[in-house]
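Project standup — Tuesday

K.O.: blocked on the structure for the chain from last sprint. Re-posting the sequence here as requested.
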Amino acid sequence: MTGKGFEVVPQALRGAQTAFVDAAERHLQLVGQDLPDFRMSEQDLGILGHLAGIVPEYNAAVDQIMRKVAASSDSLTAAAHSLDTAAKAYEAQDEEYYKKFGWLAGKADNSGVYQPEQKGGR
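H.V.: unblocked you, prediction finished:
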């Protein structure tokens, strides 16, 4: 949309959507593969660590971090979905605009932007 001080470019929304999807996948990898390796067994800190109860508290903290990272992944996925929805809406708007002015019958230039057919002499 132009003429009102701003323009929405669906391709830019798609780029942002891809970044959010990638970040969500990295968060899931962190939760599924990396963070579980940070957990300790009862023997890791010896008898004194066992008696002090450090390991269960430490593991509880790791578990909490894993839950928060998983929740972040869910939020990133939801944001990606919202960006997809917005991009589809603007793409549909653009398609209607192109149809209205007969641009879909034209040819796309090198950047993928539709151009109307050249009519008349020149």
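K.O.: great, moving the ticket to review. The beta strands are 107-108, 114-115. Residues 10-109 form one domain.
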